Amino acid sequence: MPSWVYEVRITLDASIEESYGNWLAPHINEVLQKSGFLRAEWWKDQENPSCLWVIRYYASSQDQIHTYIQKYAPELRSQAVAKFGSLFGGERRVYCLNSTFGA
Fold first, then answer.
1. Measured in whole angstroms, how far is the alpha carbon of residue 70 from the centre of its chain?
2. Three-class DSSP category at 23
3. Which CATH architecture is the domain 4-96 placed in?
4. Are 45 and 10 in contact (CB under 8 A)?
5. Domain residue spans in the chain?
6. DSSP string for residues in 45-96
7. Over residues 31-37, mean pLDDT
8. pTM of the entire structure?
9. Contacts of residue 16, Cβ cutoff 8 Å, sequence gap at least 6
10. pLDDT confidence of residue 1
11. pLDDT for 46
């Protein structure tokens, strides 16, 4: 089971929801291919689904995340900025699994 998560929280203007969504799925696949992350999940905030999306990338180590951030993230982020400008924003966080409960 992966013990590290690289999370990207995306806020976006409702005017680009469809085009950003169409762009995002292939982008996630490109991140997976370049980074070697194990898998990814795309979550939508149900309180305000068109304005906040969360992408969680699962990794086997902190080093894997740091390699991605240093080696690949700048180029991939610049692609989004070139396409959507200031109509979106992102926050990134890194988590490590502390405990698991239940089944």
1. 15
2. helix
3. 2-Layer Sandwich (3.30)
4. no
5. 4-96
6. -SSSTTTEEEEEEEES-HHHHHHHHHHTHHHHHHHHHHHHTTSEEEEEEEEE
7. 93
8. 0.91
9. 84, 87, 88
10. 64
11. 87
8: β partners: 55, 92
85 Rama class: left (phi>0) / alpha (psi -120 to 50) / beta: left
| C-alpha torsion 8→83→37→3, nearest 10 | 0
**Contact predicate 8/76, CB 8 Å:** no
User: Which phi and psi angles does 30 have, rounded to 5°?
Assistant: -65, -40
pLDDT grade for 36, boundaries at 50, 70 and 90: confident
Does the pLDDT at position 45 exceed 70?
Answer: yes
Q: Is 58 left (phi over 0), alpha (psi -120 to 50) or beta?
A: beta
Beta strand 4-12 with 52-59 is antiparallel
